[in-house]
């Protein structure tokens, strides 16, 4: 007998349909407006109606959109089309030609430009390794989608460089080491390694064996960030908290995203480990959803201070689309993994806020930026930090999770 408070079949089916509808409307937006037919790649900066307002191309969103198309090509019937694969292939050609900083020697030559011009000339560099992460993800996913082993070879080369930067020495990224600056590790470093490993190693026992120790390090380092009742964004290298605003910095949506990364790892590689299951849910999903939720206006706060001091980030009380995308995935994973009604209740809480605030019912795709009261502060659909990734990944993953829940019930 289903636990009281669990969804009925009709509720599951209607919720599933709502995600399918959003996926189709959102993909219609990106397929219609974002492709650069002249130079290849994608226009990232789009208004709510799809008008291009800046032709610069942001490396991590070039790569994310390629990954998204390749993922949908392999996991859906509707988007398993020559058109989708061809557009992704044109994107791969663009990023391989224009993003790597090949004029640098050694591992530094695996770095990528953060932004380029429309035709691909270097425009901006970041001293962070995250464009490189999505470069790996795009190549690995397209290696499978297009059956191009050369893409995986290059993905592994950049992955090895990232592992060195993450675990040995990040100085090649160009950030200065200052006397008063503590040596730290941010949550996003092991998170992105775990994310890349999942995509690179999919379906390959040899790669799973090769990177077993990297999986272990990633999971252990993520778990260290759960300190007491909070998930801290920044720790000292030895896993202890640091002082100051950096040490108290909370990003509830990011913690929840880490939660579903851990749940995904548990399901695929460590399903007998009940401690990992409960820690992932309790510490990384339930807790940040509780302390991050705005009881006055609804929605997840963007940034918070652990001790209740004023957060130093001016956007702290905004409500961004992507934390809600991650929370939808995480709550569904928690419900699927346990069957506990509390997780469906949490999912519905996030779902009701998200679906009443972010969707554009006229043009498709979601708006991204709200103020604390839930009013739109930006109407763009794409920019340097928003594009074809979080929404589409959320919609398709929630479709797959809901389908699995429905099958299990029947």
Please, could you describe this protein's structure?
The chain has 410 residues and is mainly α. The chain has 14 helices and 14 strands. The protein has helices spanning 9-33, 59-75, 82-98, 130-146, 149-167, 188-200, 205-210, 212-224, 244-248, 252-269, 274-292, 321-338, 341-357, 390-409, and strands at residues 45-46, 52-54, 57-58, 115-116, 122-124, 184-186, 226-227, 230-231, 234-236, 249-250, 304-305, 319-320, 369-370, 376-378. The strands form 6 sheets. A 3-stranded antiparallel beta sheet has the order 3-4-5. A 3-stranded antiparallel beta sheet has the order 12-13-14. Helix 3 packs across helix 4 (130-146) and helix 4 (130-146) packs parallel to helix 6 (188-200). The longest helix has 25 residues, at 9-33. The protein is globular and about 60 Å long. The mean pLDDT is 97.
């Amino acid at each position: 007998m289903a636990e009281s408070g669990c969804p009925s079949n009709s509720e599951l089916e209607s919720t599933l349909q709502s995600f399918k509808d959003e996926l189709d409307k959102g993909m219609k937006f990106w397929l219609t407006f974002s492709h650069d037919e002249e130079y290849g790649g994608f226009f990232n900066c789009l208004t709510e109606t799809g008008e291009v307002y800046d032709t610069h191309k942001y490396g991590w969103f070039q790569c994310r959109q390629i990954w998204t198309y390749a993922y949908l090509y392999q996991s859906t019937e509707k988007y398993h089309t020559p058109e989708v694969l061809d557009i992704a292939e044109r994107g791969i050609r663009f990023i391989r030609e224009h993003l790597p900083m090949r004029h640098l020697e050694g591992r530094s030559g695996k770095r990528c430009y953060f932004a380029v011009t429309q035709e691909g000339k270097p425009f901006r560099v970041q001293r962070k390794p995250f464009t490189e992460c999505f470069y790996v993800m795009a190549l690995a996913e397209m290696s499978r989608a297009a059956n191009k082993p050369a893409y995986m070879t290059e993905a592994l080369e950049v992955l090895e460089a990232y592992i060195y930067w993450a675990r040995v020495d990040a100085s090649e990224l160009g950030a200065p080491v200052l006397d008063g600056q503590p040596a730290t590790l941010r949550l996003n470093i092991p998170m992105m390694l775990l994310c890349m490993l999942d995509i690179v190693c999919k379906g390959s026992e040899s790669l799973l064996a090769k990177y077993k120790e990297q999986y272990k390090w990633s999971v252990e380092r993520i778990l260290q960030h759960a300190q007491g009742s909070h998930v801290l964004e920044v720790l000292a290298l030895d896993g202890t908290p640091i002082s100051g605003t950096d040490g108290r910095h909370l990003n509830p949506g990011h913690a929840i995203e880490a939660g579903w990364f851990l749940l995904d790892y548990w399901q695929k590689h460590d399903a007998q480990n009940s401690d990992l299951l409960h820690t992932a849910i309790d510490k990384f999903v339930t807790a940040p959803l509780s302390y991050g939720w705005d009881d006055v206006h609804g929605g997840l706060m963007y940034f918070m201070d652990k001790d209740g001091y004023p957060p130093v980030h001016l956007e702290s009380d905004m409500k961004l689309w992507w934390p809600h995308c991650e929370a939808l995935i995480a709550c569904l994973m928690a419900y699927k993994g346990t069957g506990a009604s509390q997780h469906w209740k949490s999912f519905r809480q996030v779902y009701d806020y998200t679906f009443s605030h972010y969707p554009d019912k006229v043009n498709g795709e979601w708006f991204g930026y709200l103020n604390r009261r839930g009013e739109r502060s930006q109407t763009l659909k794409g920019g340097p930090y928003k594009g074809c990734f979080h929404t589409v990944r959320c919609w398709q993953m929630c479709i797959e999770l809901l389908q699995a829940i429905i099958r299990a019930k029947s």
